[in-house]
Design a protein that fits this description.
Blueprint (H helix, E strand, L loop, with lengths): L2 E7 L4 H21 L3 E12 L2 E9 L6 E9 H4 E2 L2 E2 L1 H10 L7 E5 L2 E10 L4 H14 L21 E8 L2 E2 L3 E2 L2 E2 L3 E3 L9 E3 L6 H7 L6 H16 L6 E2 L3 H10 L4 E6 L9 H12 L1 E5 L5 E9 L5 H29 L15 E3 L3 E2 H21 L6 H10 L7 H5 L6 H9 L4 H8 L15 H20 L13 H14 L6 H4 L5 H18 L4 H9 L5 H14 L3 H19 L16 H22 L3 H9 L2 H10 L7 H17 L14
Antiparallel strand pairs: 1-3, 1-9, 2-3, 4-8, 5-6, 7-8, 9-10, 11-12, 13-14, 15-17, 16-18, 17-18, 19-20
Helix pairs in contact: 1-4, 1-7, 6-7, 8-9, 10-11, 10-15, 11-14, 11-15, 13-14, 14-15, 15-16, 16-18, 18-19, 19-20, 20-23, 21-25, 22-23, 22-24, 22-25
């Protein structure tokens, strides 16, 4: 059987669609999996448009198979007294649905219990879906929800307008938010109108919508948009549209039946910085920029429409878009000219009237705090051999927030920082100052580049850490999924800058050490970077972080080395041995000696282990200090035969207290000596 579920809605915000589509697909798959309704050769596809999210699953079972279960009840002595069943036996038999005479005796390691074999009849898919689907739909996470029925409890991103739920051709009688499922969907609002479309069979879904001017397959829609962008751009010889993955995603989720038109604007606007022009086109109008063969901006734009107009209508739409863009560009040019009348240096005083946070004061106060951190980081960097233009950094920190008072930023907030950098360059403040201000907010996400200059990197660190520490200081740290001040994003930026730059700066240099709340917060962010950005396995990350993460580039190097050797048999065995050592030390009721007494080593295997550890420790330490972690781990792996022999032949928890304490000290030495690269006990092995 094929199963189709479509939830029809009023227009969903584009940024929320992809996650909801994926979640609905996962919830449906998990439900069918959990209820044993998926055939081995099943297939699942998910779809979405601004007005719907949908899932189509092929090869769904008609019903669950019957299963035989062995149920265990109370102990035999409780269930039967003098051979007669007690109320406990009767209650268990009733619950199992059998006669008390059919109860059996089962012997386990804990004793004798009553048991029963019962046959659980499988339920139909129709019955299960009718019961379970409303809960799955209601559980979809949306960043923002709304109520739309007075006095009703359900919340959803937008009002639900229709539901389709089909098993082949049979309607699944699901009800959610007062809407009853049917086999009726709706096509493109303009090109098809408001009349309902009948889906005779679940497998017909895509074809029915396509005939009504709706491409429900997101990837197909994305592909068509990219092809149309290419085709429209060919009207301008030698031109190409400027690649923008995020904008392609956005327009894909804004359309159901997309097409592309090419428009133009007056070349005189090219006198404005490209950043301003592209921001206006991209962020305000969802237009794609066009560039010439050399990569310079050309006086054209591409608009993605949610319709396919005829030639006359397309011309009207083109002129309308050109008129809107011309007005926006005129605004930008006006603000640019007005802003130039007040130099950035004269705007510093204006920051006293711009609030940073109501309990933390103005951006003027934040600027002063940023300056202190930036100067401290610059001094440390110079002391450790880095090249820093300290004067440029100080000037950039002083002026970094002044563009908040500029009219262009008030109108186009996305240009914050960028405008400041452009104005600094236009006002002759020096390239180092301009670049630092321009890049201060980068990276905004994990895919963004870090600032290209040392001064920009230090300014970014100072600004972010000042924000984080100030917010934490007044109890505004992130909780759960709530992070209204973007502190996790700010910390991600710090970690990325420290990881991908050559700055000789550690987290402790920022002031993270000594504050448990901040330390834990940054540990989570380093963990996120190592796992989500660098792609290390969770156990490698845990092992490395347990050995320290103050120097993030060093932590990455250690993770790379551990990931490289973790699959080897010797390293896997060492990991198991380290787990055993940690467990023994954790369970030991007595405190082990701080040092090993060589004279008290009475067994050849423990003497051999001690001698090998004593020889190996300085070798590993030397490699560790030089950052040669693969070589260090190769040496650690040579411990395997000596550790194996020790555990095979030596009883750590000996009866003699002195011997026991000395052996505990020995294994503690093994653990401590070789855990500065990673805590190998965290590595998950196949054993």
């Amino acid at each position: 059987m094929n199963f189709l579920l479509e939830v029809g809605l009023e227009e969903i915000p584009a940024r929320m669609i992809a996650a909801a589509q994926a979640e609905l697909a996962k919830r449906v798959k998990d439900l069918l999996d959990r209820e044993r309704l998926l055939a081995a050769d099943h297939d699942l596809h998910s779809y979405s448009t601004p007005r719907r999210i949908a899932v189509l699953v092929t090869n769904v079972e008609v019903a669950q198979s019957d299963i035989e279960e062995q149920l265990t009840g109370p102990s035999w002595s409780v269930a039967f007294k003098n051979g007669e069943p007690t109320p406990a036996a009767h209650a268990f038999a009733k619950r199992a649905g059998i006669d008390v005479a059919a109860l059996q005796k089962t012997t386990t390691g804990k004793g004798e219990y009553i048991s029963a074999k019962v046959l659980r009849k499988g339920r139909t898919t129709l019955e299960i879906l009718t019961e379970q689907l409303p809960k799955e739909i209601a559980s979809i996470y949306w960043p923002k929800n709304m109520y739309w029925r007075a006095g009703k409890p359900e919340r959803f991103v937008r009002p639900v307008k229709w539901l389709v739920a089909l098993l082949d051709h049979q309607i699944v009688p699901v009800e959610f938010a007062g809407v009853h499922a049917a086999n009726l969907t709706y096509g493109h609002r303009i090109l098809h109108g408001d009349s309902a479309l009948t889906i005779e069979h679940a497998a017909d879904y895509l074809g029915v919508l396509e005939a009504a001017h709706v491409t429900a397959d997101v990837e197909l829609r994305r592909h068509r948009i990219r092809k149309d962008l290419d085709a429209a751009t060919r009207a301008v010889p030698g031109a190409r549209w400027r690649e923008d993955h995020a904008l392609v995603d956005a327009v894909t989720h804004l359309t159901e039946w997309p097409s592309v038109i090419l428009g133009g604007f007056q070349p005189e606007f090219l006198a404005l910085p490209e950043e301003v022009l592209v921001t206006v086109m991209r962020d305000h109008q969802k237009y794609f920029a066009v560039e010439d063969a050399s990569g310079k901006l050309a006086p054209y734009f591409l608009a993605v429409l949610n319709t396919r107009p005829d030639e006359r209508a397309a011309e009207i739409i083109r002129h309308g878009n050109e008129r809107v863009l011309r007005a926006r560009f005129n605004d930008a040019r006006f603000f640019w000219d007005v802003d130039q009348k007040i130099p950035l240096i004269d705007r510093v005083e204006k920051l006293k009237s711009v609030t940073f946070q109501k309990d933390l004061g103005s951006y003027y106060a934040k600027t002063e705090a940023n300056l202190k951190i930036a100067e401290s980081l610059a001094a440390l960097s110079l002391e450790r051999g880095a090249s820093v233009d300290q004067a440029a950094l100080v000037k950039a920190a002083e002026l970094a927030k002044t563009d908040l008072t500029a009219e262009l930023v008030k109108e186009f907030t996305e240009l914050q920082g960028i405008v400041g950098g452009l104005y600094a360059r236009a006002q002759g403040l020096g390239e180092a100052v301009a670049e630092a201000i321009y890049w201060q907010y980068s990276p905004a996400g994990i895919e963004d580049p870090i600032p290209p200059t040392t001064e920009g990197q230090l300014l970014g660190l100072a600004d972010r850490f000042q924000t984080i520490s100030a917010m934490f200081g007044i109890g505004l740290e992130p909780t759960g999924s709530k992070d209204p001040f973007g502190l996790r994003r700010a910390a991600n930026g710090i970690v990325k800058i420290l990881a991908e730059s050559s700055l000789p700066i550690r987290l402790s240099d920022l002031g993270v050490a000594g504050n448990d709340t901040l330390s834990n917060f940054f540990r989570e962010r380093v963990e996120f970077y190592l796992r989500e950005v660098k792609g290390f396995a969770y156990d490698v990350v845990n092992a490395v972080l347990a050995a320290g993460y103050d120097d993030i580039r060093d932590a990455i190097a250690r993770a790379e080395a551990v990931a490289e050797v973790r699959a080897s048999a010797d390293f896997a065995a060492i990991s198991v041995a380290f787990k055993r050592i940690k467990n023994i030390l954790r369970q030991s009721a007595e405190k082990e000696s701080v040092s090993v007494s060589q004279a008290a080593l009475i067994d050849a295997a423990e003497r051999n282990l001690f001698e090998h550890v004593t020889r190996l420790d300085p070798v590993v330490s030397s490699f560790r200090q030089k950052g040669e972690y693969p070589a260090a781990l190769e040496q650690v792996a040579t411990l395997r035969p000596h550790v194996d022999a020790f555990f095979d032949k030596v009883m750590v928890m000996a009866e003699d207290p002195a011997v026991r304490q000395n052996r505990l000290a020995l294994i503690a030495t093994v653990l401590g000596s070789f855990s500065s690269i990673a805590d190998f006990s965290e590595i998950v092995t196949g054993s």
